[in-house]
Fold Homeobox domain-containing protein.
Amino acid sequence: MELGLSLGYGRREEEEEEEAEEEEMMEDMEEARSSGEPPVQLSLLPSVPAHRFPSSSSSRLGFAWTADNTAAAAAAGNGSLVASAARGFDVNRVPSAEDAEEGSPNSIASSFRTDFSAIGIAARGEGVAAERASSARASDEEENGAARKKLRLSKEQSAFLEESFKEHHTLNPKQKVALAKQLNLRPRQVEVWFQNRRARTKLKQTEVDCEYLKRCCETLTEENRRLQKELSELRALKTTSHPFFMQLPATTLSMCPSCERTTTTTTTTTTTAANAAAANAGGSGSKHASSFASLFRKKPRFFPFVSSSHPATSPAS
DNA sequence: GACAGGTCGCCTATTACATCA
DNA sequence: GGTGATGTAATAGGCGACCTG
């Protein structure tokens, strides 16, 4: 997977190689767009609609795989990026000598070292930069067994990664390397950031889904309670207010234990016109098909998920 | 073609650290 | 200044896909 650009190349060759790579990346991006590569979205209540990911967003921040990122940032008025790039101090690490060694996990980033000061996103201040650099050094040391130090990405870096994440929830190796180069991070850091970002998105979506299902459950419970009450009122009405009313069949209300839907069962032989109509319409007591509306010739009330499927299986609407 | 071994990318759970109230 | 809560960078382990001999 390692791209092995760092060793044995003259500067000119490196530049040509990088230009070719960026062209390839742009082609890849175009391919991805045109093939309708779907953004990662969960089925319920999409958290970030696709229309919020305009294809221009990459150029707005000037991702490495788009043309002339720095110029794009400048053209888009992204002054902080340009200015920080112009300031040119390192963010997280000073690529170490061993990074250039073959097989080092940092070898890719180090291959872009010469461009860092011109393109990279700088930290908020020299103090921060120094701190970050020391953190990065500690991170390097950690690879040699020392305790790991945690660095925090700058706001600019985070914003940049966020924009990139809106564009793609996953990165191919080229995009990863390009982004790392642009942000002056190691590709591994970019990869980890995307992994954690996906995890956060998923967690958030799960919470939203959970909340949604909870509300559905509450609604159904309330509806059930209301229907039970209405039924008892109608029964009372039947016995007191309409002595001449033809005897309604005794209807037993039973509840499906899994979905809490009610089912009626007619137990007497005397029928009313309404009941006969209901019987003609399919009979009462069939699974999840009985309807108080048909029984009493009332207009059907709105009931969520009443159409055909089980509530738990079709909450998408 | 089937299979084992290696590599890679991703997911998930967890840890460790920085920051803030 | 100490402390707990929170956010998040980083790590570890597992899994599936893919490639190669």
